[in-house]
């Protein structure tokens, strides 16, 4: 155990070293962008304060954040004042984030230790995430088992100066991935003295208590200056059983979950458990086990007994940055960020079905019949639900070093040379039943009959006898998988003035990048050794790729009121014995007929190299945590809400493969808009945007496959269409006349393809108004609104367009509003934050459910120049968006959370000047 505890720190440092400079000379993968913070909000709104700084979306210094493409800025103070728990909360609440994502609290997900966003509903892999303008390593486990992404849960909020969101494609500036937008999290560069922040709180309805301590500081001595930060946080889980509306999965009349059952496969009828069968199990699952009329033993509390709707987390994040002034015009810099996270969650308890690795039934020698037995094991039998928690121990490291300054013999040119390496490791521990579980419940296997069916002579009392924790431990083990990813980049950039035109200087920026990237997923070898019950073979996957890039950007003042921006970049990837290169460009115009008015427009081409997970994934066999079989619901004539095949767990088996023949994605985006800023106290903007992706690389979603298959079989879709032909070949079922589970899914075949096209368009509105109220105090009103106008997808070129915006299977929002009002008076500061989400399809996919709004409040009092105290309340009205149309868990998972009202007390103290 001691060796386990020291593994994360050694792992982070060893990865940073092992994939460091020695490998760089063999690589050509470059994905770094050097940017520094934009001017503050006041300067940005007023247009030009004389400063020349870099902003996200351009390598050329500007005096204002407003350019040919809009940029949204979230300050570190906004994160606290508006009730956001962390960087992920702040980003997910932004109106551009219209896509539903599977996060840490999603439940059945491949990545419950990570959080991400989906700008414009185009998926997490189409948004480029930067920290201090540089790329960081992907989370080492693919999102939804398919795409690579950056974990936003691992970015500490203690040292965030601002977050800049570029709302458009930017491959010509940043390279691959920047199709839906760019998020640049910029950490503080300077600090004087030390700051202590202590924050603690919880939920009104129980669970989710959390505490956080942040200690930051910095200073300078001579030519050396630095800043550091430490953030420690702890969050307890929220269990579904702690929320009344979903504490039972049968509160809406749905049949309770089977706990113990015997089925005569030959007749299709359940065998009566006898007078004392279910009675012996009655106290399990919180005294809720009963016998149904079918008959079998069941409980409505079986699902919520294990399900966590907020994960348990412990994290330690550290950051340090040093700058040394070699001369008045040259400085050396270095920064290091380390994150240690331990996450636990639970989405279902242990369950067993006889001969689960085979045909799920056996020949009962005592009865002379083919039978299928099942048993779901309760928390009381294993020593508490946490005994079956899954655990993740993650470590992330990011290190940069470089030099920057003015280029000698020039008056306006400066440069930066930097090396950056980032690594991420994840160790996942999963409890699993052992192969001896069949003999535990059924006794020894006596051989096989002429039909190849296993023979047992079991004692039924064993099925209905509660287990002891020691007995459970004898049939349970742990599988440990190890995953890691890394990226590194060596970059050289420069910018300055080329020559003067009558309207001003023509400025140029250029960049050259060289680097590499890789990942590996190593499953527990015990899986392939047959140690665990009903586990398909698991193959490890690993891969790397190289890249180089050359780019340039020009800022051209055509007239005093008209400025053009032109950028071009060539990126080349080498992987899997092939090389893919792509030139991308963008053009933008800014027209200022008056100092307070800006008209802007931008056109950009983009590309994205296929995710490494898509390329290098080996053939993987497994099962989904839960599946909805729409076809069998149709056959049974059951509505989705009461269908026995809706969201059943464990779900269908799948076979997934990667492909080294995928083509890169090609994208194009354009936007145009207007900004009116008559003063530093008021500004409004409106922008239209459109994004199109051709050759979209996508892993077909199993739920979409099953939905299409059912619609094709029912005649709702043309059975001869390419979509139907594809869906029907991907779902392999038992024959209709099978002895056991006729028409049940055997396997779903999933692999990545280049889909024909996805495109979306919409409108963004934003505004800010500062009001001087004199003795009443000052007010700051901010508002943002995004309206999606269209969203279409076409899997094959010959298919008709699918209208995702109006589809009842698409869980993305069509609109979102974010507004806040801040009041400042004397020592008091308070903020009210309102987020309104647009309508969604209902869970049974028959209608749309109404929009939903959440209100957060915060109030802060400055006790002294050094100390302040704050009260923060999220979800002031204790609202939970419920949806009972498709059964438990009775809320739109992924779109909303069921936490209810949350509150925190926060204390800040500043030491020093």
UniProtKB/TrEMBL annotation:
Keyword Membrane tagged: yes
Protein localization: Cell outer membrane
Membrane topology: Multi-pass membrane protein
Signal peptide stretch: 1-30
GO cellular component labels: cell outer membrane
A Pfam match: Plug
Keyword set, alphabetical order: Cell outer membrane, Membrane, Receptor, Signal, TonB box, Transmembrane, Transmembrane beta strand, Transport
Main location: membrane
Domain TonB-dependent receptor plug: start-end pairs: 65-182
Signal listed as a keyword: yes
Location of the TonB-dependent receptor-like beta-barrel domain: 360-876
UniProt similarity note: Belongs to the TonB-dependent receptor family.
The name this protein goes by in its record: Outer membrane receptor protein
UniProt organism field: Collimonas arenae
